[in-house]
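Repro:
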Amino acid sequence: MRGVFLLIAALFLMGQRDAILVPEVSQKEVQVRQGFTGTELLLYGAILDPAGRRAGAEYDIVVVLKGPTQPIRMREKERIVGIWINAESSDFRSAPSFFAVASSRPIKGIVDDRTAAIYELGTEFIQLSPSGQIDPEKQARFAAGLVDQRHRKGLYTQIDGGVTISEQVLYHARISLPSNVPTGKYTAETFAITNGRVIASAVADVEVRKVGFERFVEMASQQYSLIYGIVAVCLSIGMGFLAGRLFR
């Protein structure tokens, strides 16, 4: 039924000169509760040729799911006299808390590096907005380190061939959100590409938020940070004292 709805909606827009994208996501809101083990988002939609023909086979589709950005400082450790200490560092003003890319083919076969960098089509093209003066080679090393670190945590991922185009008009992609997914407003941007050129794009929003007791703890830590800190210390001391009494 949703596929039929997408086709009908697209037909109403056939008067446009450019290709038409009608994107949708399976969940507009992801609720993070106690015991949350992650979830999977289905990003799907339809694309029509300007003339209204079924022309999905002539296009490539790339979907970019991005979480809220945040400033971050990356540090590099160096071993001196047998001790690991912080050495050089680099600051990034807008590192996405989550970043996933799914494409109908490998990105290298769809667009050139310049186009990929403009639209952030791939983890190596994330616009981190570094600050301060730093050697370009060192900057690239810190950026690669950040991407690798978050990739190992499941927060940055790239899925070549992760988008399926069916019936020459419908497309869908599945992107996993891990249990440690950050909360906030996410954007799912879909690009239609032909002959190495982006000819249409559309955005859908997804909200990831904590609910229940987790939400209460998060709000308390932000709005009543002093009280929250005192309670956390008291609980730690109490639990330590109780554990000591039990295992004497």
